[in-house]
């Protein structure tokens, strides 16, 4: 067993959700008595197996509802598979839906500490990168006012600045590069490329933008209706992806 | 299991402290009186109850003025009530975090319980001021407030584990909790003395674990004799609820992200 390395492993992993249709007790009770199933089963991921090694940058593509976000949640450890096994070695920093931990009444400065703590950082680690976070966010003049006064661009800039300063070996990025103006987007991408250069991180990248996936990832996984259709080089996988997109729309 | 229990206080202690700060700081932002509400709000309740129960009903509270007798029970009760009605919502309110980031989920109810304990501490200064004003002597028995407080925290934490989880499944729980707390207050000697409870029902009445705790606080503060049997029962029930609650919470935790 090789535990020193950072790695992600999925073995025949299936994730089912139970969609509850009967929201109220009035509807729920008769169904229970009649023995009707109280929930509809939805297979979000179906028998997925893959392995990602240290230093890899992997893109995940697929249509809406293909299971991409469920895959990220399994890696982040917030949910567990219905069947099969997920093994993740190393701390995970989810850059998904930034600013989830922000409190609107608190200042940007206070929110840096709060959000970084939620992402798993300790006090000393945060103090070390505090200046860098503020500089990266370009919010020096506004850092002590409540974030509810921020524009949505400022909000996202702060959130992204915190997320990219978390020192975690596994980064999950879900459609977050649509942040701020073009200049800031470039800055974010540069920062991620810097991570990539370090060579010891795993970066998982979800995007609908073919260009950025091709630019950024050396390997792509294609999901469709919870199944893993293909895995390989971006050019190859995108060819197949276009094929299924035209086949059934 | 013990290691799992300690994790939030060791590895996640910075997260816990940040969540406590968020709870405390955010609550009174954009309000004129700010943190003064912590003291002001029990004072107003004190005035109302004092008027009703010492002027109209005239409850017998012995040598201790009614206002002090009341505060000794009301302050821990307010702590109990506000904590439970807030923890019922704590997982639902933080559902976006639960869906995105992993951390031991019990950190969320803990942050509420500890933040409200800070409120209790400041509110207790009012009681101290009243005791000095009425020249009620402090006895060494006040040290026993600490173990009694720990029993109360264990009980609240245990209940929080159940209601916060249940509220994720059905939001009805938050309303049930508030009604239940309203009823519970009148089944606990908060605004009236225990001596008014009919002898016939006293054994039944004392099954409520808050009876031993609230009466214990009064015994410790005013050097009354301790009803150790009732307190022991409270301690036993409280720690049992805590342990069962913890196991239940850790088991359910895995599916939180799927159901919120």
TrEMBL record, chain A:
The domain of life for this entry's organism is: Bacteria
Gene Ontology cellular component list: membrane
Give the GO molecular function terms.
ABC-type transporter activity; ATP binding; ATP hydrolysis activity
CDD domains annotated for this entry?
A: ABC_KpsT_Wzt
What keyword terms does UniProt attach to this protein?
ATP-binding, Nucleotide-binding, Transport
Gene3D superfamilies found in the cross-reference section: P-loop containing nucleotide triphosphate hydrolases
Q: Where is the ABC transporter domain?
A: 19-249
Asked if Transport is a keyword of the record, the answer is: yes
User: Does the keyword Nucleotide-binding feature in the UniProt annotation?
Assistant: yes
Indicate the family of this protein: Belongs to the ABC transporter superfamily.
PANTHER family for this protein: TEICHOIC ACIDS EXPORT ATP-BINDING PROTEIN TAGH
- Kindly provide the name given to this protein in its UniProt entry: ATP-binding protein
- What organism is this sequence from? Candidatus Daviesbacteria bacterium RIFCSPHIGHO2_02_FULL_36_13
**Taxonomic classification, please?**
Bacteria, Candidatus Daviesiibacteriota
TrEMBL record, chain B:
Instruction: List locations, semicolon-separated.
Output: Cell inner membrane; Cell membrane
Q: Does the keyword Cell membrane apply?
A: yes
Its Gene Ontology cellular component terms are: ATP-binding cassette (ABC) transporter complex
UniProt topology in membrane: Multi-pass membrane protein
Q: What is the protein's major site of localization?
A: membrane
Q: Which domain of life is it from?
A: Bacteria
Q: Name one GO molecular function term.
A: ABC-type transporter activity
Matches recorded under Pfam families: ABC2_membrane
Q: Which UniProt keywords apply?
A: Cell inner membrane, Cell membrane, Membrane, Transmembrane, Transmembrane helix, Transport
Q: Which InterPro entries match?
A: ABC2_TM (IPR013525), ABC2_TM_bact-type (IPR047817), ABC_2_transport (IPR000412)
Q: Which residues cross the membrane?
A: 34-56, 68-92, 113-136, 142-163, 175-195, 231-249
Renumbered to this chain, the signal peptide range is none
Report domain ABC transmembrane type-2 positions: 33-252
Gene Ontology biological process terms from the UniProt entry: lipopolysaccharide transport
Question: Can you tell me which family this protein belongs to?
Answer: Belongs to the ABC-2 integral membrane protein family.
Q: What is this protein called?
A: Transport permease protein
Native species? Candidatus Daviesbacteria bacterium RIFCSPHIGHO2_02_FULL_36_13
């Amino acid at each position: 067993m090789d535990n020193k390395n950072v790695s992600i492993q999925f073995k025949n992993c299936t994730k089912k959700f139970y969609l509850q249709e009967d929201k109220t007790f009035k509807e729920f009770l008769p169904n229970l008595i009649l023995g009707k199933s109280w929930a509809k089963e939805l297979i979000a991921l179906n028998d997925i197996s893959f392995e990602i090694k240290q230093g890899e940058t992997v893109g995940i593509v697929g249509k809406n509802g293909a299971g991409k976000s469920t895959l990220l949640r399994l890696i982040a450890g917030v949910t567990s598979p219905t069947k099969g096994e997920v093994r993740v070695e190393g701390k995970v920093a989810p850059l998904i839906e930034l600013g989830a931990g922000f409190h609107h009444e608190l200042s940007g400065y206070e929110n840096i500490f709060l959000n970084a703590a939620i992402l798993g950082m300790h006090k000393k680690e945060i103090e070390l990168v505090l200046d860098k976070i503020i500089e990266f966010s370009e919010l020096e003049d506004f850092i002590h006012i409540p974030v509810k006064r921020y524009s949505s661009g400022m909000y996202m800039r702060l959130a992204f600045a915190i997320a990219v300063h978390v020192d975690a070996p596994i980064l999950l990025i879900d459609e977050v590069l649509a942040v701020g103006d073009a200049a800031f987007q470039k800055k974010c991408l540069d920062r991620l490329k810097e991570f990539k250069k370090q060579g010891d991180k795993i970066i998982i990248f979800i995007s609908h933008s073919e260009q950025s996936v091709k630019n950024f990832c050396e390997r792509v996984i294609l999901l469709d209706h919870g199944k893993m259709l293909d895995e390989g080089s971006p050019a190859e996988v995108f060819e197949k992806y276009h094929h299924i997109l035209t086949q059934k729309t | 299991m013990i290691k799992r229990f300690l994790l939030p206080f060791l590895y996640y202690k910075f997260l816990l402290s940040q969540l406590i700060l968020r709870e405390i700081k955010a609550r009174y932002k954009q309000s004129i009186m700010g943190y003064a509400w912590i003291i002001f709000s029990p004072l107003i309740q004190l005035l109302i109850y004092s008027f009703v129960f010492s002027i109209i009903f005239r409850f017998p509270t012995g040598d201790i003025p009614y206002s002090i007798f009341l505060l000794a029970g009301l302050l821990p009760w307010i702590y109990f009530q506000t904590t439970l009605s807030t923890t019922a919502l704590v997982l639902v309110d933080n559902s976006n975090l639960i869906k995105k980031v992993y951390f031991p989920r019990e950190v969320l109810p803990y942050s509420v319980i500890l933040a409200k304990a800070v409120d209790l501490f400041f509110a207790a200064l009012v009681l101290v001021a009243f005791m000095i004003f009425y020249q009620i002597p402090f006895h060494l028995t006040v040290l026993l407030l600490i173990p009694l407080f720990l029993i109360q925290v264990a009980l609240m934490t245990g209940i929080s584990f159940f209601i916060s989880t249940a509220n994720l499944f059905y939001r009805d729980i938050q309303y049930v909790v508030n009604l239940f707390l309203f009823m519970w207050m009148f089944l606990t000697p908060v605004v009236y003395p225990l001596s008014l409870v009919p002898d016939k029902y006293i054994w039944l009445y004392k099954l409520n674990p808050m009876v031993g705790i609230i009466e214990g606080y009064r015994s410790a503060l005013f050097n009354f004799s301790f009803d150790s049997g009732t307190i022991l029962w409270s301690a036993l029930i409280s720690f049992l609820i805590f342990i069962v609650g913890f196991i239940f919470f850790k088991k359910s935790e895995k599916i939180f992200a799927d159901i919120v």
